[in-house]
Amino acid sequence: MTDFAISPEVLRATVAETLGAKAKSVTVALDEVNVVVGAADYLEAALLLRDAPGCRFEQLIDLCGMDYSDYRDGEWQGGRYGVVSHLLSVSLNQRVRLTVLASSDDFPVVDSLQSVWNSATWFEREAFDLYGIVFEGHDDLRRLLTDYGFIGHPFRKDFPVSGHVEMRYDEEQKRVVYQPVSIEPREITPRVIREDNYGGGLH
């Protein structure tokens, strides 16, 4: 293992050369290398990032879904749903962020990275549960955090904050029941209090 990572610009050049036309962009922001690939090239790009001599990203340390529908106050021009992965090379002491956008907003699908890094298994289940992103080739794509009867995907920007239904244990029926949300929506406006002597009266 190397003691010091190479500079982000050198890594950017290495990753760009490795991926070639499979990368839509390879940029550096805040000293981090960011790679964007198309859905059709996602799996092959992941394999190259894992195996290429100058990359060797042996570990997938995080993967999450994204909903860009309100990104930059609606100025975003790309696809609505994306998947962002953070990769680590232990042997070369370097990191990269890999982003892919699903080609369809109505039914977002991208390839699973489970066959590349087995740590993707639960990360992808979480992204499926919370965003409704389907990972093609995943061998056990089930909800992970929400209840089995849950309807919808709660991290989508159009999902209501209070949800659609709530569950409770019914003592008479001796089982869990679902019912419409009973929380009344309300808007909380902070009250500003001003005092003549605020701050001890020092002027």
Automatic annotation (TrEMBL):
E.C. number(s) listed in UniProt: 7.1.1.-
Protein family according to the UniProt entry: Belongs to the complex I 30 kDa subunit family.
Domain of life: Bacteria
Subunit structure, interactors included: NDH-1 is composed of 14 different subunits. Subunits NuoB, C, D, E, F, and G constitute the peripheral sector of the complex.
NCBIfam families cross-referenced by the UniProt entry: NuoC_fam (TIGR01961), PRK06074.1-1 (NF004730)
Molecular function per GO: NADH dehydrogenase (quinone) (non-electrogenic) activity; NADH dehydrogenase (ubiquinone) activity; quinone binding
Reaction catalysed by this enzyme: a quinone + NADH + 5 H(+)(in) = a quinol + NAD(+) + 4 H(+)(out)
Gene behind the chain: nuoC
Listed name of the protein: NADH-quinone oxidoreductase subunit C
Membrane topology: Peripheral membrane protein
Matches recorded under PANTHER family: NADH DEHYDROGENASE [UBIQUINONE] IRON-SULFUR PROTEIN 3, MITOCHONDRIAL (PTHR10884:SF14), NADH DEHYDROGENASE UBIQUINONE IRON-SULFUR PROTEIN 3 (PTHR10884)
Pfam families cross-referenced by the UniProt entry: Complex1_30kDa
Entry keyword set: Cell membrane, Membrane, NAD, Oxidoreductase, Quinone, Translocase, Transport, Ubiquinone
UniProt GO cellular component terms: plasma membrane
